[in-house]
Amino acid sequence: xxxxxxxxxxxxxxxxxxxxxxxxxxxxxxxxxxxxxxxxxxxxxxxxxxxxxxxxxxxxxxxxxxxxxxxxxxxxxxxxxxxxxxxxxxxxxxxxxxxxxxxxxxxxxxxxxxxxxxxxxxxxxxxxxxxxxxxxx
Length: 137
Prior knowledge:
Elements: H1 2-16, H2 20-26, E1 34-35, H3 36-69, H4 74-77, H5 80-106, E2 115-116, H6 123-129
Helix pairs in contact: 1-3, 3-5
Subcellular location: Cell membrane
GO molecular function: G protein-coupled receptor activity; olfactory receptor activity
Domain G-protein coupled receptors family 1 profile: 1-137
Protein backbone atom coordinates (compact mmCIF):
# COMPACT_ATOMS: atom_id res chain seq x y z
CA UNK A 1 0.00 0.00 0.00
CA UNK A 2 2.70 2.49 0.95
CA UNK A 3 4.73 1.51 -2.10
CA UNK A 4 1.85 2.47 -4.37
CA UNK A 5 1.24 5.71 -2.46
CA UNK A 6 4.89 6.70 -2.73
CA UNK A 7 4.86 6.01 -6.47
CA UNK A 8 1.67 8.05 -6.83
CA UNK A 9 3.20 11.01 -5.01
CA UNK A 10 6.37 10.79 -7.13
CA UNK A 11 4.22 10.63 -10.25
CA UNK A 12 2.24 13.68 -9.11
CA UNK A 13 5.46 15.66 -8.65
CA UNK A 14 6.64 14.71 -12.14
CA UNK A 15 3.19 15.39 -13.62
CA UNK A 16 3.03 18.91 -12.21
CA UNK A 17 6.64 19.69 -13.10
CA UNK A 18 5.88 19.35 -16.82
CA UNK A 19 3.81 22.56 -16.78
CA UNK A 20 4.65 24.63 -13.69
CA UNK A 21 8.27 25.63 -14.54
CA UNK A 22 7.19 26.99 -17.91
CA UNK A 23 4.29 28.84 -16.30
CA UNK A 24 6.52 30.40 -13.63
CA UNK A 25 9.09 31.53 -16.19
CA UNK A 26 6.35 33.06 -18.36
CA UNK A 27 5.22 35.26 -15.47
CA UNK A 28 8.40 37.30 -15.85
CA UNK A 29 8.46 37.50 -19.67
CA UNK A 30 6.58 39.84 -21.95
CA UNK A 31 6.49 37.51 -24.97
CA UNK A 32 5.12 34.18 -23.81
CA UNK A 33 5.03 31.62 -26.57
CA UNK A 34 6.17 28.05 -27.05
CA UNK A 35 7.54 26.44 -30.19
CA UNK A 36 5.97 23.46 -31.91
CA UNK A 37 8.66 21.00 -30.80
CA UNK A 38 8.56 22.34 -27.25
CA UNK A 39 4.81 21.95 -27.28
CA UNK A 40 4.89 18.37 -28.55
CA UNK A 41 7.52 17.46 -25.96
CA UNK A 42 5.49 19.01 -23.16
CA UNK A 43 2.33 17.34 -24.45
CA UNK A 44 4.00 13.93 -24.60
CA UNK A 45 5.22 14.05 -21.02
CA UNK A 46 2.01 15.61 -19.72
CA UNK A 47 -0.25 13.04 -21.39
CA UNK A 48 1.96 10.05 -20.63
CA UNK A 49 2.27 10.94 -16.95
CA UNK A 50 -1.47 11.62 -16.79
CA UNK A 51 -2.30 8.24 -18.31
CA UNK A 52 0.23 6.56 -16.03
CA UNK A 53 -1.45 8.20 -13.04
CA UNK A 54 -4.86 6.90 -14.14
CA UNK A 55 -3.50 3.37 -14.51
CA UNK A 56 -1.77 3.59 -11.13
CA UNK A 57 -5.00 4.76 -9.50
CA UNK A 58 -6.75 1.71 -10.99
CA UNK A 59 -4.02 -0.51 -9.53
CA UNK A 60 -4.45 1.18 -6.16
CA UNK A 61 -8.20 0.56 -6.36
CA UNK A 62 -7.51 -3.14 -6.87
CA UNK A 63 -5.10 -3.05 -3.92
CA UNK A 64 -7.82 -1.55 -1.69
CA UNK A 65 -10.35 -4.08 -3.01
CA UNK A 66 -8.10 -6.96 -2.02
CA UNK A 67 -7.41 -5.40 1.39
CA UNK A 68 -11.13 -4.97 2.14
CA UNK A 69 -12.59 -8.13 0.60
CA UNK A 70 -9.76 -10.60 1.36
CA UNK A 71 -7.90 -9.25 4.39
CA UNK A 72 -6.43 -12.61 5.38
CA UNK A 73 -5.07 -13.28 1.89
CA UNK A 74 -3.85 -9.72 1.29
CA UNK A 75 -0.15 -10.45 1.83
CA UNK A 76 -0.33 -13.53 -0.38
CA UNK A 77 -2.15 -11.78 -3.22
CA UNK A 78 -0.40 -8.41 -3.06
CA UNK A 79 3.22 -9.46 -2.74
CA UNK A 80 5.97 -6.88 -3.33
CA UNK A 81 6.64 -8.32 -6.78
CA UNK A 82 2.98 -7.88 -7.75
CA UNK A 83 3.11 -4.24 -6.60
CA UNK A 84 6.26 -3.62 -8.65
CA UNK A 85 4.64 -5.29 -11.66
CA UNK A 86 1.54 -3.13 -11.31
CA UNK A 87 3.63 0.06 -11.13
CA UNK A 88 5.76 -1.02 -14.09
CA UNK A 89 2.65 -1.95 -16.07
CA UNK A 90 1.13 1.44 -15.32
CA UNK A 91 4.26 3.23 -16.53
CA UNK A 92 4.54 1.14 -19.69
CA UNK A 93 0.84 1.61 -20.48
CA UNK A 94 1.05 5.36 -19.94
CA UNK A 95 4.10 5.96 -22.10
CA UNK A 96 3.00 3.51 -24.80
CA UNK A 97 -0.50 4.98 -25.06
CA UNK A 98 0.82 8.51 -25.20
CA UNK A 99 3.44 7.65 -27.82
CA UNK A 100 0.74 6.14 -30.05
CA UNK A 101 -1.28 9.33 -29.77
CA UNK A 102 1.76 11.50 -30.44
CA UNK A 103 2.76 9.43 -33.49
CA UNK A 104 -0.74 9.91 -34.90
CA UNK A 105 -0.47 13.64 -34.23
CA UNK A 106 2.92 13.95 -35.92
CA UNK A 107 1.50 12.36 -39.10
CA UNK A 108 -0.41 15.60 -39.70
CA UNK A 109 1.02 18.40 -41.83
CA UNK A 110 1.80 21.67 -40.09
CA UNK A 111 2.28 24.92 -41.97
CA UNK A 112 2.62 28.57 -41.10
CA UNK A 113 3.97 29.97 -37.85
CA UNK A 114 4.06 27.02 -35.47
CA UNK A 115 3.98 29.13 -32.33
CA UNK A 116 1.49 28.77 -29.49
CA UNK A 117 0.85 31.83 -27.35
CA UNK A 118 0.32 29.91 -24.13
CA UNK A 119 2.40 28.15 -21.49
CA UNK A 120 0.38 24.93 -21.63
CA UNK A 121 0.14 22.63 -24.64
CA UNK A 122 -2.76 20.29 -25.13
CA UNK A 123 -4.15 18.40 -28.10
CA UNK A 124 -6.65 21.08 -29.26
CA UNK A 125 -3.90 23.71 -29.52
CA UNK A 126 -1.79 21.36 -31.61
CA UNK A 127 -4.71 20.43 -33.86
CA UNK A 128 -5.39 24.12 -34.57
CA UNK A 129 -1.87 24.44 -36.00
CA UNK A 130 -2.47 21.61 -38.46
CA UNK A 131 -3.32 22.55 -42.03
CA UNK A 132 -4.40 19.01 -42.98
CA UNK A 133 -7.55 17.04 -42.23
CA UNK A 134 -7.63 16.04 -38.56
CA UNK A 135 -10.18 13.23 -38.90
CA UNK A 136 -9.25 9.57 -39.29
CA UNK A 137 -10.98 7.62 -42.01
